[in-house]
Design a protein that fits this description.
By secondary structure, the chain is an all-alpha fold. It is 61% helix and 2% strand. The chain has 26 helices and two strands. It has a two-stranded antiparallel sheet. A hairpin with a 2-residue loop joins β1 and β2. α6 runs antiparallel to α7, α10 runs parallel beside α12 and α19 crosses α23. The protein is globular and about 65 Å long.
């Protein structure tokens, strides 16, 4: 029984170890900029990244510049948490180079994203059990968090979203214990977690403020202990800003190198303005990136929330609802609400543990299992093929990932390195996800419903492709991914020939990118 309870976490860890999501010639900006910061810190004792710029090419975007010096444009927390991974890899892979980038970045994302997500899963389950959830329902909620939401992708990539999710929900657990009263020690710990969350992503200050207000509503004196916990992280951020930009209150986002990114920041507060109903709707239902499109299981959240209200304090239940709402309101005011090439609306990923926690306190049936099946297919199926989905691919587990799978392609994983297993490499991570489903559902009836939900999601993606075929530009994007990032040379020329329109700029871009690291992978 103990093994069964931990099975979904162990299976996720297996997928994470097998997965090597560092594609040939694809410098994932969010991840590589953190690698650049850590490499510069370790090798030269400075966050200034000029020493590694020759590896990044002239068009690399996620940088900030001040007084002739160049830095990452990201909040420093994610890089600092990933730093032990770099130190662990360094003796084996050597100094920064086009060759060492892939293994160093791979170990960094295990330290900076996978480990925080696994710790979140353990804390999440413990909080559910202390709140009165049965073991079966706590296991279901954990497995759904890991495999049926976009957190599946962001625990495998060196983005800061899984880390922020872990910190915010960890603070909720500290502030609103299910048993016993609050203590200054818990408030200090929660404050420290909120400090780390903001150090990793500046906009996390909004949900952090919501948590503090909910915690201190009945006892304002708690703010002192919470502030004491967060103060070291505020000091660290002020020091980093002073070193990099000459002012403890200057943020990296104010010094963007990219003209495109600077244009996004010109209105509102660092680009975030008043919430738009259209953006709010698209965060939920956009066919390429909408949260409910990837996790239709969350359609049952209103029912689940009613079940959790009796299991936690009024302030705790209020925070469970307001933290996700605050994130949606913030990013409904951001023109780049979808966050670029990614799985789901990545900016609101830290809301997911708050949305999934109530599911531990309701009795699920066939409908829940079916929606879970559709969610797992969408999140896992997309992520294990190419987790950097361009905007415009409706239901991308079919329109993008399905096409890659049909050609025998999937994201890099260690089994590709074994020639005898190369053709089946994509199956093992998918089977791990299926095994997690078997563990979380525990009954034949619910397993059948789960399979039916996954099948419906697959058929829906096929029908969507028939009813609304890909535009020529999306065909070219998909062919470009196949040609450059999966090493299938000629795919782009074939797609260009099908359009009947020459694409000299696209071909020139390919030639430039083929000169960039990381190197080829044996797909």
């Amino acid at each position: 029984m103990r093994n069964r309870r931990s099975a979904s976490v162990l299976l996720y860890a297996l997928v994470a170890v097998l997965f090597v999501p560092v594609f040939p010639h694809f410098l994932s900006p969010n991840e590589v900029t953190r690698w650049a910061t850590v490499a510069s810190l370790v090798e030269h004792g400075t966050p200034e990244v000029s020493s590694v710029l020759p590896f990044l090419g002239s068009s690399f975007e996620d940088l900030s510049a001040h007084d002739g010096r160049v830095f990452s444009n990201k909040a420093p927390g994610g890089a600092l948490v990933a730093l032990p991974g770099y130190l662990l890899a360094r003796p084996f892979v050597g100094p920064p180079s086009a060759v060492s980038m892939r293994p160093a970045l791979d170990v960094m994302r295990l330290a900076g994203a996978t480990l925080p997500l696994l710790l979140l899963a353990a804390a999440f389950r413990g909080a559910a059990l202390r709140g009165g959830a049965t073991q079966a329902r706590a296991d279901f909620a954990v497995a759904a968090l890991l495999f049926a939401t976009p957190l599946f992708a962001y625990g495998l990539l060196l983005f800061a979203h899984a880390l922020v999710a872990a910190c915010l929900f960890g603070a909720w657990i500290a502030f609103f214990p299910a048993a016993g009263g609050t203590t200054p020690r818990r408030d200090i710990a929660g404050g420290a977690l909120l400090g780390l969350a903001v150090l990793a992503e500046f906009p996390a200050a909004v949900p952090a403020a919501v948590l503090v207000l909910c915690a201190a509503a009945a006892s304002p004196r708690r703010i002192l202990a919470i502030a004491a916990g967060g103060a070291p992280f505020a000091g660290l951020l002020a020091l980093a800003n002073a070193i990099s930009f000459g002012n403890p209150f200057a943020l990296s986002s104010a010094f963007e190198v990219s003209a495109r990114v600077r244009a996004l920041r010109t209105s509102g507060l660092f680009g975030i303005g008043l919430p738009s109903p259209a953006y709010f709707f698209r965060l939920l239902a956009d066919p390429s990136h909408g949260l409910l499109v990837f996790s239709p299981l969350l359609l049952l959240w209103p029912v689940a929330f009613r079940a959790v209200r009796a299991r936690t304090s009024r302030a705790g239940a209020t925070a469970l609802a307001l933290v996700p709402l605050s994130l949606f309101v913030v990013y409904a005011g951001f023109p780049d609400w979808h966050g670029g090439f990614n799985v789901g609306p990545r900016y609101v990923v830290p809301a997911l543990p708050f949305l999934l926690f109530p599911f531990a306190f309701r009795e699920g049936g066939a409908l829940e299992a079916g929606l879970a099946g559709a969610s797992v297919l969408a999140c896992v199926g997309t992520s294990l093929a190419f987790p950097f989905v361009p905007h415009g691919f409706a239901l991308p587990w079919g329109s993008l990932a399905g096409d890659l799978y049909a050609k025998g392609l999937s994201a890099p994983n260690l089994l590709h390195l074994v020639p005898a297993l190369r053709g089946m490499a994509f199956l093992v991570p998918l089977l791990a996800a299926c095994a997690a489903a078997a563990v979380l559902l525990r009954s034949r009836k619910r397993l059948v419903a789960f399979g039916a939900g996954a099948a419906i999601a697959a058929v829906a993606s096929l029908l969507a492709g028939r009813l609304d075929p890909l535009s020529p530009s999306l065909h070219l994007q998909r062919a470009y991914v196949e040609d450059v990032y999966f090493g299938r040379r000629g795919a782009l020329e074939e797609a260009i020939a099908a359009t009947g329109t020459p694409q000299p700029r696209l071909l020139a871009r390919r030639e430039r990118e083929l000169l960039l690291p990381p190197g080829p992978w044996p797909f």
